Amino acid sequence: MFHYDYKTEYTCSQLNSLDLDGDVAHNVKFTGDCNGNLKE
Asked: What is the CA radius of gyration of the chain?
């Protein structure tokens, strides 16, 4: 199993993390958010 961290640019999410086991992704996490669709 491999762990990947991907730093994004120009998106609300600042960091995407996941564990890859063959073709299957586990423990997917998006860090950071923006004040968007969930705001009332």
From this structure: 13
pLDDT, one tens digit per residue, over 12-40 is 888 999 999 999 999 999 988 777 666 65
Give the predicted TM-score (pTM) of the model: 0.66
CA distances from residue 12 to 23, 24, 36 in whole angstroms, order as listed = 26, 25, 9
Q: Which two tokens stand for residue 37?
A: 């669709």
Q: Return the DSSP state at 32.
A: -
* Cα distances (angstroms) measured from residue 25 to each of 19, 35, 37: 6, 27, 26
Distance CA 29, CA 35 (A): 18
